[in-house]
Amino acid sequence: MDRRQFLKWGSFITVSVATTGLAACGGSDDNPASSPTSNTPPATGTGPGTTPQAFSFAHGVASGDPKPDSVMLWTRVNGANGTETVNVTLQVSATKDFATLLVNDVHQVVPDWDYTLRTKVASLTASTTYYYRYIVNGVTSITGRTRTAPAPGTPVSQLKFAFMTCQDWSVNHWGGMAELAAMDLDFVIHMGDYIYESVGASFQTGKAEASHTALTLPNGTRLADNSVYATTLADYRYLYKTYRTDPRLQALHAAFPVISIWDDHEFSDDCWQDHQTYTITDDQTEQVSRRRSANQAWFEFMPADVSLDLGNPSFQNIQIYRQFQFGDLATLVMTDERLYRADHVIPESVAGSEIGSRYFVPKTALDAASALKQTNAGGALTPVSMLGDTQRAWWKSAMSNATTKWKLWGNEVSLLRMKVDGTASIIGSITASLLAAGGATGNTALENAVKAAVTADLTAGKANPAYPTLPWTTLGNLLVNTLGLLDQNEFDNEWAPSLNQGLPPRNLLDSFILNADMWDGYNAERNDLMAHLKGNAIGNVVALTGDIHAFFAGVVMDDHDAGTPAPVMVDLVSAGVSSNSFWSFLKQVVDFNPSFAAVRPLVYTTPISAVINTLNDTLKTNNPTTVKYADTDAQGYAVVALTPASLTCTFHKMGKLVNGAAPATATASMQSIQVLADVTPAVTVVPS
């Protein structure tokens, strides 16, 4: 083994050092190679004393974590016997024809790491495109292309990159990946949910393209609804290997370096630390072995420049939060918002279900629970933190020390405030129904009078122990005595009981947070991070976000609950590549949970039998200072053009499946969002 190759066995990362160019007949000291320009590149064979086998690179090649002088390269050898090591040659060149090799090294792949090979190639030149390939027993992989980052401080006029998230094998299609692979990009950011640990879950009920056959986990654990979730290392490896058989995902990885972070489904849906949340008591039991298996599989299959310590017996045996710099234009900070986060502020066991804990959480109860946890911790953020104390300090330092024009935050879950005022919504719904029943729709004066009466009665009624049996005194007086539209007996015996029958549970007559698994559920820490940005005058900060299966663009405030909140940064949220939409999830809630039937109009209406999405307007109306753009029923990805003057993000919304296949043109529509540098944080929805 020569100086260009050595192994870090602790986490199995091999390292190759690029030279200024190897001679055509040159090779590593381990296995001299024949001419690298031949159409049948040199064989490397298996380890000593083994029998040649039918090897292939069935899962493609990949690169990631581009830095000015290095990049991570990845492949997996298929066809090994599961017990012996295999020698693989890695070749790197600055030209497609591999006429001159910068790297021509032999590396070992071993069964302990599922025959994956992760190589850090060092001593590269900044802002340079490289090509790479692997060879085993005369079999050559496809050629991958990667690119190093510009050196720190180097003037950069533009970066173009994509960010994506939530690629469920079992739902919809992956046509967008083929589009991305054909673009001219510097790199791709993956915000997590690269795999889905669940098979046959209720949120995976949508149709999938025919090429994505049904998944069958080697082991798995079955839930009461008959779905199965990955439990063992073999399960997680199976998912990554299956996902990587898709030729479009392979093409994407072969085309650009990908900077990846995980979210929840790489381990478990809506997880925190090593706790799962499938049932209301699940998270009371630690799942150390399962979490460690998920960590290892992610490490094995992602070309990320991180280390995994299998000698560390804890589940926190890997650190994936890290940062990148691209010349003088952008700093990219990638965070881990699962491995260190505290339990949901209102645990599922307290709420009785995920409703009231993670979804549709009464804001007053959430705020009170958060304040109590902080008080009990002496004011510390630890029990209400998503990042954890160490990572939070690191994040602040990275933001403070960034010298680039833009500070980009690879952020798994949305920072935008997404609340709904249930009282106001119910008032509006009742008022509209009364006016329609009386044939007075469009009478503004009467509408205002009825709305004021309903508001008075409902506001008082929330505190009435007899709720939802209310007298509706103010409304009755208006309709009976002031307007003379009804007699008292008719109102008391018909109208009032009908109104009471339609009232929702008391907790919905409050402002409630739609998703407390996001930053809305960790508001104290969000305020602390925003205070750091504001107090240190750190501008041009934009979060690139995933998870929620919808497109959003908006502004993050220093304190969303302040009387006059100040904008601090921007959050841009991409829909999932294929996962079922946020709107479809909420539609299921209001359709099948009787407690939420009363707020159904906030999610959708059905005039003339058509289903109309009202959630987009509900979120924008209830969060006017933050949510500026919303498409809650979408799949797709985002492409960013970044210059010193502006950031333009284009959301690509996917078309639907056509006869079980991705449409010929995957993108059905596009919407661009612009953010200007050096001004008060704001987003502009560019007219289509």
From TrEMBL:
PhoD-like phosphatase metallophosphatase domain location: 161-650
InterPro entries assigned to the protein according to its UniProt record, in alphabetical order: Metallo-depent_PP-like (IPR029052), PhoD-like_MPP (IPR018946), PhoD-like_sf (IPR038607), PhoD_N (IPR032093), Phospholipid_Metab_Enz (IPR052900)
Assigned keywords, A-Z: Signal
Source domain of life: Bacteria
Span of domain Phospholipase D N-terminal: 59-148
Biased composition annotated in UniProt, kind: Low complexity: 31-52
Protein name from the UniProt record: Metallophosphatase
Organism: Cupriavidus pampae
Coiled-coil ranges per UniProt: none
Span of the signal peptide: 1-23
SUPFAM superfamilies: Metallo-dependent phosphatases (SSF56300)
Region of interest: Disordered: 27-53
